[in-house]
UniProtKB/TrEMBL annotation:
It comes from the Bacteria. This is Uncharacterized protein. It comes from Streptomyces africanus.
Length: 120
């Protein structure tokens, strides 16, 4: 999907004369996008009009959603690093043993090749 540009424009008072919704004086316009199933098609969405309060609410809610996404990503990265540390520790112990535990080494190598879901 093509990343769309977003632009904001405050409508002038002349543009709002006779408008049934003069409070919606902020225009949010999106650039062209490309549907993922059609490589040669381009869609230009219609602009959206918002009130300034709606714009602030949109900003706050999108900030909260991005914060939750960042926190979840950090939790997943911490879990991955812990799992990787366990694999490293178990593999090192098995390799340093005089008679290495083959099944443990196979599990460590399997986990490094195909991590799958992380268990904490």
């Amino acid at each position: 999907m093509l990343i769309s540009r977003i632009s904001l424009r405050l409508l002038s008072s002349e543009e709002l004369v006779g408008d049934p919704f003069p409070d919606a004086c902020v225009q949010l316009a999106f650039g062209p996008t490309r549907p993922s199933d059609q490589a040669d098609a381009v869609v230009v969405p219609e602009p959206v009009r918002l009130t300034p309060a709606d714009l602030v609410r949109l900003r706050v809610e999108s900030g909260l959603a991005l914060g939750e996404i960042r926190a979840e990503m950090q939790r997943a990265e911490i879990a991955w690093r812990q799992q990787l540390s366990r694999w490293y520790r178990d593999g090192r112990l098995a390799a340093e043993a005089r008679a290495p535990d083959i099944s443990l080494l196979q599990r460590v190598l399997g986990g490094l090749r195909n991590p799958g879901p992380v268990t904490t």
